[in-house]
Design a protein that fits this description.
93 residues; alpha+beta; 23% strand
Amino acid sequence: KEGWLVKPGDLGENLMIANIDYATICPDQKYSFGEVEIEISYICDPCTNLYALPYVGEKRGPEFIKTIMNRRGWYARVLKEGSVSVGDLFQII
């Protein structure tokens, strides 16, 4: 919607969750989905590695970083491995 051609996987995400209030996520929270349990570690701030995306580059890099700040995602530690499927309920433990 903001003019960037971001596709799933471009920002290094391993899991995409819909309909969750980003502002409610914080370190040490535990979530389950499918057979998996994770613990939120820390926010994933955007870095200059994203300049390598074909629609960003050096010239537009700073603008892109500013646009996705606080929107990129979180790092998490896997507490319980397992399978995940589209549509699995993502819930706080």
